[in-house]
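Entry 14. Ran structure prediction on the chain below.
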Amino acid sequence: VQLQASGGGQVQAGESLRLSCAASGLRFSNFIYGWYRQAPGQQRDLVARIRDGHGIDYADSVKGRFSVSADEARSTVYLQMNKLRPEDTAVYYCQAVARRNGATYWGKGTQVTVSS
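Output, structure tokens:
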């Protein structure tokens, strides 16, 4: 299983970015997906997660600004981030969790830096 995250960068506050996570080596529909982030000196926290049954959980700090989606045909999960704030600065990681047994996989992170 490989998860390749991309799309990070440096932006100004108020701007947008879209992160992509391309999954390979798995059957896309057999996993549920999420995005997490880790700021320097902080723990890795949930940003958004597509729950089994297709509901979505968002961290309170990103509700109304971020949205997650999945394209099964492309085996890719997206995180659209709007109205970015300096506190959104972190390394963003995608996660895949196997529905069958809960096995968890992480991609390498992509850096998002938001300046004021």
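The radius of gyration is 13 Å. Will compare against last week's run tomorrow.
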